[in-house]
Amino acid sequence: MTTVTQKSQVTIPKDIRDPAGIRPGDEIEFELEDNHVVLYKKGKKLPFEKWRGYLGRFRTDKALEELR
């Protein structure tokens, strides 16, 4: 059993973290299902996923033409 802190934080017990593969820095998602709180470990993003769409409609063929 764990207690909610004044900052609404909880510690996930080791006997739950280890089998679930939850490590520091992992993202956890909470959902309410039938009056029960369920937590899910979110999948890791690919390292460059955060940059997807950053360049907008960048086209490599046009960039290469400009460089030539």
How would you describe the overall organization of this protein?
The protein is of the alpha+beta class. The chain has one domain. Helix content is 22%, strand content 18%. It is built from 2 helices and 2 strands; from the N terminus they run αββα. Strands 1-2 form a two-stranded antiparallel sheet. The mean pLDDT is 84.
Features:
68 residues; alpha+beta; 22% helix
Percent of residues in beta strands? 15-25%
Q: Strand order, biggest sheet?
A: 1-2
Q: What's the gyration radius in Å?
A: 21 Å
* Helical fraction: 10-25%
Report mean pLDDT, rounded to a whole number: 84
Q: Uncertain runs with pLDDT below 50, 5 residues or more?
A: none
Largest sheet: number of strands, sense, barrel closure:
2 strands, antiparallel
Oligomer: single chain
Bulk shape: elongated
Distance between the termini: 66 Å
Annotation, overall tally of beta strands: 2
Give the number of domains: 1
Q: Structural class of the helices, strands and pairings?
A: alpha+beta
- Determine the number of helices (DSSP H or I, runs of at least 4 residues): 2
The topology string of helices and strands comes to: HEEH
